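Researcher: I'd like a candidate sequence for this fold, 369 residues long. If you have to choose between options at a position, lean toward the conservative one.
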């Protein structure tokens, strides 16, 4: 099994922030919506599992301790006693000394939830429909028909195990195995509940309120303890995990906590400058366009981006400028432009000297917007 730290590409002493950053980077690269290949899907499962373990302090502590922490030889005489009981059916407090409970923890559930980009800015409240196992109202998890109760198993006498004497090289050895009649429960149910067929739970559709925090991103999972499936025989519920997927927006995109957009500016407005009112995700905002603005210039509006997931404040709204040159001019308009060209002695078109800043703007303009 691959090492969780290697899967995320971090060192064993990585901080919680480094682990989260590595997971978000890999999630953006391997998410099925971005990379549909089977190899990416398998890696995404491994990355998500590694993150689930390392992001939880207790699970990470046990993982770092290694398998020896759970080794039957790591706990002193108790571990050896369990092995001895498994082979020779010994009594006392070891395994096989009593019946097992019918009530078991329910399975965890994973559900994808879609949110809009504008809902990510400040967070949102949703009602999520879940088709899952719930407690049977007829028997209340007892598995028995109303008015009846479980009966002690006649074969094992309620112990849940059957002991057999086996002849071996060591002599006669007593072994213990789960009772085949009661399946180790120690009791049988002569009259199962007609609603749940003796399972103590039924499948039903229910609505769960969910508060989606501001700043979430695609691939992030929200854990809702106790909202998964109810266990057999009314056992404790598992957890519900909600995987976030942010829907595509036609105008805005996202870079971390910043929002990105493109503003088309007419040629005359680019020359003379103007003030534009744009519709942000949280309302109208005025944008000053200075005279002589160029295509690929980026105008920054502070604190108009996404609310930070774990922290204070918001990101910025970065608007890339695209100067629109008219393609059709009337005769009079063309004369005016020609007069401007004669009065303004512009240089002839030529290759510009290399400018790192300019290429940075072009990169942001064409790849981020």
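Model: Candidate sequence:
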């Amino acid at each position: 099994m691959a090492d969780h730290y290697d899967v995320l590409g971090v060192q064993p002493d990585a901080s919680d922030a480094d682990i989260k950053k590595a997971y978000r980077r890999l999630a953006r690269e391997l998410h099925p919506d971005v990379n549909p290949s089977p190899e990416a899907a398998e890696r995404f499962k491994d990355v998500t599992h590694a993150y689930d373990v390392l992001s939880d302090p207790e699970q990470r502590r046990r993982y770092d301790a290694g398998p020896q922490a759970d080794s039957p030889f790591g706990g002193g005489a108790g571990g050896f006693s369990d092995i001895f009981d498994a082979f020779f059916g010994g009594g006392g407090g070891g395994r096989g000394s009593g019946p097992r409970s019918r009530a078991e923890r329910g399975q965890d559930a994973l559900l994808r939830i879609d949110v809009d980009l504008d809902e990510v800015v400040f967070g949102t409240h949703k009602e999520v429909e879940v088709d899952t196992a719930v407690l049977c109202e007829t028997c209340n998890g007892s598995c028995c028909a109303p008015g009846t109760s479980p009966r002690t198993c006649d074969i094992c006498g309620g112990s849940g195990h059957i002991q057999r004497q086996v002849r071996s090289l060591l002599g006669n050895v007593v072994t213990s195995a789960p009772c085949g009649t009661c399946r180790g429960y120690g009791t049988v149910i002569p009259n199962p509940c007609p609603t749940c067929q003796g399972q103590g739970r039924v499948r039903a559709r229910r609505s769960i309120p969910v508060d989606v925090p501001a700043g979430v991103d695609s691939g992030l999972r929200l854990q809702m303890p106790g909202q998964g499936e109810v266990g057999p025989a009314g056992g404790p519920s598992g957890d519900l995990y909600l995987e976030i997927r942010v829907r595509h927006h036609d105008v805005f995109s996202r870079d971390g906590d910043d929002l990105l957009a493109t503003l088309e500016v007419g040629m005359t407005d680019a020359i003379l400058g103007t003030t534009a009112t744009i519709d942000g995700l949280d309302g109208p905002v005025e944008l000053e366009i200075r005279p002589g603005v160029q295509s690929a210039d980026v105008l920054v509006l502070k604190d108009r981006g996404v609310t930070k997931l774990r922290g204070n404040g918001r990101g910025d709204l970065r608007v890339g400028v695209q100067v629109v040159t008219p393609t059709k001019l009337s005769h009079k308009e063309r004369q005016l432009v020609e007069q401007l060209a004669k009065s303004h002695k512009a240089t002839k078109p030529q290759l510009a000297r290399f400018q790192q800043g300019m290429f940075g703007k072009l990169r942001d303009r064409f790849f981020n917007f």
